Structures are given as C-alpha cells and as structure tokens.
Amino acid sequence: MSQRCIVSCCFAPHNPEYYAKFADRLEASLGQYAKNADKIIYRTQWPPGAPSHHELTYAFKYYAVKAAFEKGYRYVMWLDAGTQA
User: Fold this and answer.
1) How far is Cα of residue 2 from the mean position of the Cα atoms in its chain?
2) Global pTM exceeds 0.70
3) HEC profile for the chain?
C-alpha cells in the first residue's frame, strides 16, 4: 500500500450513468499521471458513514477523505468528479 491516495466520489443515486463517465475519465487520467498513488473512487455508493447529499450537502467529501485516513493513508488528495489529471 502506498502512503498516497487520491479520493473521489463519482456517484449520484438519481443519475448514476451521468457520473459514471466522469469516473471513467478520471481513472484514465490518473492511470497515466498518478501511477504511484492508490485511488479510491466511489462509483455506486456514498463513502462509509456519509449521509446522503440531500441530508447534508457535500458531506460525502469529508467522509471519503476520512475513510482513506482510516485505511492508513498518510497523504490524501480529494478530486472532484469532473477533474482530470
């Protein structure tokens, strides 16, 4: 396991197909430019313990980063779904 991790949420329960293309694009760009960092991309569910976006707007970002730290990563970078390396 690397000490570095890149985290993103490419998920929306009301429109999963829309965000799936962003997850694919992000993963492809990270595969090219971030080969030495682990990647955690939530595609089908919210991160562990996260309330829905409707319940608490954007809280999933905090929970995604928190989950990475809890897995033992020392350096965690959040990337929004629309980001490309």
Assistant:
1) 16
2) yes
3) CCCEEEEEECCCCCCHHHHHHHHHHHHHHHHHHCCCCEEEEECCCCCCCCCCCCCCCCHHHHHHHHHHHHCCCCEEEECCCCCCC
